[in-house]
Amino acid sequence: MSESQQPLTGKVALITGAAHRIGAQIARTLHSSGMNLALHYRSSVEAAQALEQELEEIRPNSITLLQADLNQTDSPPKLINAVSAHFGRLDLLVNNASSFYPTPIGTVQAAQWEDLITTNMKAPFFLSQAAASLLQESQGCIINLVDIHAERPLKGHPIYSMAKAGNAMMVKSLAQELGPEIRVNGIAPGAILWPEQACIQDKQEEILSRTTLKRMGTPSDIAKTVLFLFKDAHYTTGQIITVDGGRTLQQ
Asked: What range does the domain containing 43 cover?
């Protein structure tokens, strides 16, 4: 399909945490559908630059890189202002950036609370607020990456689970607050990628045995769901699509 035939040509998405893993695949999928992208990263500069080069070789002048620490309160408006200055519009905000690590009760530090709550709940909220005026102009969308553990807490990860539960309520609350101009939805992944921290083989096999499909998903499964929610789900808002191979069906 030529660029002129792609229905998303000229539209702009901001993806947080876009340098690698699921964020990078979301970027590739949206870019292949004709979108221009603002790719946010915090510290993964080499990965971000490599992704920028990869996508710019396919379609020049379609990518801008934006570095920001989302734990800083002035980052959300700065990011949105940078997108507006570069592209002049915003059609889709993908709140993908996230911190994930265990915080067993009895070991929790205040800094861990601040980091997990900020990256998984506070930053997506304030980014959405900052982006609202641009998204209203374009009749755009917000898509949050939630987690199946927003409903079923993950043992040893109480703060992360609580933050993602807040993220899930954010989807519903913002859909109500920002409609009818802006649709807000979420995606709750299950076993898509193993954590960057060590995850022993026996634990991996136990997790997969509890899925209905008995296998891992892929970042592409999430990216295609993002594309569906943006491009095709015109009468869907305030919803969270679970992409977990049926794991939440199991007891």
From this structure: 8-249
pLDDT digits (tens, 9 = 90+) for 184-238: 999 999 887 767 655 556 677 777 777 777 777 899 999 999 999 999 999 999 9
Total tally of structural domains belonging to the chain: 1
**Residue pair 245/22 in contact by the 8 Å Cβ criterion:** no
* H or E segment and range at residue 186: strand 183-189
**Is 142 within the bounds of a domain?**
yes
Among 192, 185, 193, residue whose Cα is nearest residue 241? 185
- Which candidate, 4, 8, 52, places its Cα nearest to that of 27? 52
In a domain, 3, yes or no: no
User: What is the per-residue pLDDT across 104-134, written as a single tens digit (0 to 9) for each?
Assistant: 999 999 999 999 999 999 999 999 999 999 9
Tokens linked to 80: 């949105």
Question: Is 79 domain-assigned?
Answer: yes
CATH number of the domain where residue 165 is located:
3.40.50.720
Are 154 and 133 in contact by the 8 Å Cβ rule? The answer is: no
What is the pLDDT, as a whole number, of residue 93? 98
Q: What is the model's pTM?
A: 0.93
Report how far apart, in Å, the C-alpha atoms of 183 and of each of 12, 138, 172, 235 are.
15, 11, 10, 9
**Banded model confidence at residue 1, pLDDT cuts 50, 70, 90:** very low
Question: Cβ–Cβ contacts within 10 Å for residue 151, how many?
Answer: 15
Active site residue 160: yes
Helix axes 158-178, 123-138, angle to 10 degrees: 20
Catalytic residue among 41, 101, 160, 235: 160
In a domain, 1, yes or no: no
CA 22 vs CA 27, 53, 122, 139, 142: distances in Å: 9, 18, 20, 25, 17
